[in-house]
Every structure is written in C-alpha cells, then in structure tokens.
Design brief:
With 152 residues, this protein is mainly alpha-helical. The chain contains six helices and three strands, in the order H-H-E-H-H-E-E-H-H. The longest helix has 25 residues.
C-alpha cells in the first residue's frame, strides 16, 4: 500500500465535472431562452427525435434511471413536444416527438448553435475537440452499468 503522500490529490472528479456542466448550462440556457426551452430539455428532445422507442430503451441509451427520465419528459409532454403512449407491450411506454416538438427543435437549433459557438470561442476549437475526445475516452473506459450494491 502506498503512503498517503504518494496518492495524487486531484479532488473529486465528479464534483469538478458537475461544476463544469453547470457553467456550460449558464451559457446554453440564455441562448435557448428565446424559445422557452432549457439545454437539458433541448438535449432530451433532440435525442428523442432520432427514433421512437420505449422509455426504458431511451433511459438505457442516456444512462439515466427510468423514473428520472420520466420526470424530465413530463414537462416536454405537457408542452406537447413529445408523446408518451402505450407501447407494443401494454406495460411499456413509447416515446415519440410530435410535430410541435420537431418545430421547437428546428426553431431552437440556431440558438443552440450560437451557444455552441460561444463555448468554442471561449475555450478554443482545439480545446473543445480535445475535451470531446477525452470525454469519449472516459465514457469508453468506465463501466456502463452500475455494479450490484453500488449506490446512485
């Protein structure tokens, strides 16, 4: 076992990434406000628009708890941007983006692009590209499912 002084003290990686996510959100949300949508909602809507699937499948793709995803989809459904209906199996729910949701995405896309340009301008294109590569590397290296007994 290494002595405590030999262990690097980077601080909590999770806390740093969450702080970064909050700062990025403070860039995207004001841009998207003109369309009355938050970046978290825009992201869900854009991902949902790829294809119809069950809430369970969508939650797995996003690596979210099904109940958390359902709570986050509720405001989108209330706005009429997504439809959540009974799936092929009566116990499942299927999610699809409505025509109103597709119009919202189309209207919000230029605003999202402006926010993305601001991030790239502030951090530099090369850095943003490297950040994406590093995030992809971390996603590939880390386990995709919670181990049994691991807490959320």
């Amino acid at each position: 076992m290494s002595p405590p002084s030999a262990v690097p003290n980077f601080g909590c990686t999770c806390a740093r990434l969450r702080k970064l996510a909050r700062r990025l959100t403070r860039i995207y949300d004001p841009h998207l406000a003109a369309q009355a949508i938050k970046v978290t909602q825009y992201s869900l809507l854009a991902n949902a628009a790829r294809r119809e699937r069950t809430v369970t499948e969508f939650a797995a793709e996003l690596e979210m708890d099904r109940s958390t995803l359902s709570r986050n989809l509720a405001p989108l459904a209330a706005q009429g941007w997504v439809s959540i209906s009974i799936g092929a199996d009566p116990r499942s729910r299927s999610i699809s983006v409505t025509a109103a949701g597709r119009r919202k995405l189309k209207a919000a896309l230029p605003l999202w692009r402006a926010a993305q340009r601001q991030v790239e301008s502030t951090l530099g294109n090369a850095f943003v590209g490297e950040l994406h590569r590093e995030i992809d590397h971390a996603l590939a290296a880390l386990p995709t499912e919670r181990s049994k007994g691991e807490h959320a």
